Amino acid sequence: MTRKFPILARARIVAPALLCVVAAVLVTGCATPSKPHAAPAAAHPAATDAATLRERHLVAADAAADQYRTCLYGHVARYINLVPDPARLADEAAAECAPITERFHRERQAAIVTYTSATDASQQADAATFSLQADGLRVARARATELRALR
To answer: Which residue, among 95, 75, 47, 60, has the nearest Cα to 140 in the 3D structure?
Structure first.
């Protein structure tokens, strides 16, 4: 009544064969390529296109802007009971979330520099960052005032 499992029976055949293949690869040196591979940039020239690069940076900047707003609103919601002044609470939130605005600024500047000079790109990125911070701060203060009124 002893029953043999087909998987175990095949393992006795497969294991030695697998060891032979591994040994053959190691002995013949097939594990290392004989000539270097081509550069990956040459395989995808469309990926380095200025419009594609600009689009990637704009998407990253939009993601950073969304993360900044989420950070502000989360900070306001978390600390509404600890900080009585809505303006001070919003200012603290802006200080905590400042690294995200730096990433937004870098991505925005990198997107703009693809079609204009570095100086213009820096000025436009500064303006966009200031706008993001001002709008975020205004909405965070309004949200803090609203949450304070609900409590």
So the answer is: 75
Cα end-to-end distance, the chain, whole Å: 75
* Whole-number Cα distances in Å, 43 to 48, 51, 58, 117: 11, 18, 24, 29
Taking 90 as the threshold, does the pLDDT of residue 25 lie above it? Answer: no
Whole-model pTM: value is 0.65
- In the chain, which residue ranges form alpha helices assigned H by DSSP? 6-28, 40-43, 50-79, 86-96, 98-112, 118-150
Report CA-CA distances (Å) from 134 to 34, 90, 121: 58, 11, 20
Using a 10 angstrom Cβ sphere, with 0-12 exposed, 13-18 middle and 19 or more buried, the burial of residue 147 is middle
Please give the Cα distance from 57 to 75 (Å, whole number). Answer: 27
Mean pLDDT, residues 74-98: 90
Paired tokens of 48:
């380095």
